[in-house]
Amino acid sequence: MCIVLKLQVGKAERILRGGAHFWSVMRTLQADHGEFTVSAIDLASNADAGDIRKFVRSLIAAGFVERIDDAVVGPTGGSPIKRYRIVRNQAECPRLAQSHAQGSGQRNMWNVLRGPLGRDGITARDLSAYASTEALPVPLETAKSYLKLLAAAGYLSCMVEGGPRKLAVWRLRPSMDTGPKPPMILRSKLVYDQNAGKVMGEPLAEEDRP
Fold first, then answer.
1. With contact defined as beta carbons under 8 Å apart, do 172 and 113 qualify?
2. Measuring CA to CA, which of 5, 148, 161, 179 is 20 to 30 A from 41?
3. Are 83 and 60 in contact (CB under 8 A)?
């Protein structure tokens, strides 16, 4: 038997993860202290420290960050604390190869919906074609899912209803054109007690980027 759960989301916890957040914290730490560490970024995030280290390594490889050689031993001894500084500072988070591949699919689709190609209405097939690039194609099913989720969240108006062999035509509501950054699609992790018939604890949301 398939169990369908309707979630009621109350006060949302701010998502303190991802390249844009890490970069913002790095710039703040750099402005205050002239350097930063992975542990300092971790204290201001709700992400895995491994993801932070991977992002820092990518920034080093791209020439945005460098490691400070005179590492300092922590208060309890052990391995030296690795310290870093930004050498190419900019307000916008650098577009690295990996982060660009992960996030640009949604960014491209959002830009199409906001732009002239989407103003008269657009189908999932159109969105897939217009948002795809040679380096990062957007599959039709991904476009369908993106439109469905945005419509459920109130971003889209349905201009033409879809059918068994007909794709629906969607248009972005002018009032929901909130800016250039695409809405973040989240996936929830729940603990469902089949004996009690209810969700236990709070839903944990993570970004899901097609």
1. yes
2. 179
3. no
